[in-house]
Amino acid sequence: MAEGSGTGTVAEVETAFRKFAVHGDTKAMGKEMNGKNFVKLCKDCKVIDGKNITSTDVDIVFSKVKVKSARVITFEQFIQAMTELATKRFKGKGQEEALQLLYGLIAGKEPSNVGVTKVAKAAAVDRLTDSSKYTGSHKERFDESGKGKGKVGREDIPDTSGYVSAYKGQGSYEDKLKDSE
Fold this sequence. Notes:
The chain is built from eight helices and two strands; from the N terminus they run αβααβααααα. The chain is mainly alpha-helical.
């Protein structure tokens, strides 16, 4: 493989591989890529063009290069898969040239987050989360600064001291015992 003789070097392709390998998987280390992320890489980097290469082709190549029992591919297997896809994607070009053109598509790319839910920042949300506008029993759940009181603000915690609620001499029983002795 002639490094740098095209538009994308192996190092740049490996960086892109790592970024796509960890996409959507918090436990991924970036050394192996699953099939879903492999297809995402191929779509985002325009390896899948809908004519010469479809997502089915990509799935087939992924299955071919991975180890039978494995569900992921390593970077070496990824290069093997790209070598297979390159001649299909760039028909009429030599394998080396096709591979360099394919590397050019992948180098420096990152997973695009199309369709990711944006945080809603509407007036309705502000109104609903403004504790100064709360009334009735809900108002009791927040202190003056608007910070929630937690469990204290939500529950009526019963007094289990044994005294009736209006009794003023609570805690004086021990003193009365001492006085009578």
